[in-house]
């Protein structure tokens, strides 16, 4: 059995944070203030939830596990959304943030120990509401955080790096070893801070995602074999150097290409 008698469920990717020093360090990194409009994804056994709600006064949590959601409902200062996070409309949650008196400028703060088996889909799901978000602090597999913040011409740089760096400024703020959890995962973890860029390049995110996916589909080959052919099929007549590998192209160039492709002919 896990901490507090709850058995971690493999299908939900459950690993419960249990190290008080790590919990304290994460809360300090988030720096919650009374009145902040915050949503926690995957509160689990409330290791992070409790210190957060003590500082905030009120907190919304999203929990898929029926038993854990039932436990959390007993807490008087929590609003529990029992749902798969990939179905949650964060725009509606953000709208509620701005609806209160004197809260027009308030934006959503999102935190969580994300299930590692679906962390990338969750990050992509949240992308569409970046303009309604103040910041995001997530515990993730260290390897995923490395990919998120990777620089061009590195092995970790890829589709995730480009899609998220276009929209967020990101940094790793804390390393978390396996023994900080019960049960311990087989991987190292890290906490990442994500702050939406105030004036991101205007483009069609679906188009950017498609071209980046094509570019990195065969990362060992030069882009002329993948993205070059894709651009030809679309009748692109602009300048873009395809005599490089996907990992050699900076985020700004992928963004500029998506803008050029999306511009009216």
- Helix content, binned percent: 25-40%
Name of the level-1 CATH class of the largest domain: Alpha Beta
Q: In total, how many domains does the architecture comprise? A: 2
**Which architecture of the largest domain does the CATH hierarchy give at level 2?**
3-Layer(aba) Sandwich
What is the chain-wise order of helices and strands?
Answer: EHEHEHEHEHEHHEEEHHH
**CATH topology assignment of the largest domain:** Rossmann fold
Oligomer: single chain
Low-confidence stretches: 1-6, 8-13
- Give the terminus-to-terminus CA distance: 62 Å
Order of strands, widest sheet: 4-3-2-5-6-9-7
How much β-strand is present in the residues?
A: 15-25%
Please state the overall shape, judged from the principal axes of the Cα atoms.
globular
Roughly how many Å is the radius of gyration? 20 Å
What structural class results from the helix and strand content?
Answer: alpha/beta
Note the main sheet: 7 strands, mixed
- DSSP strand count: 9
Average per-residue pLDDT, rounded, comes to 90
CATH superfamily (homologous) name of the largest domain: Vaccinia Virus protein VP39
Number of H- or I-type helical stretches? 10
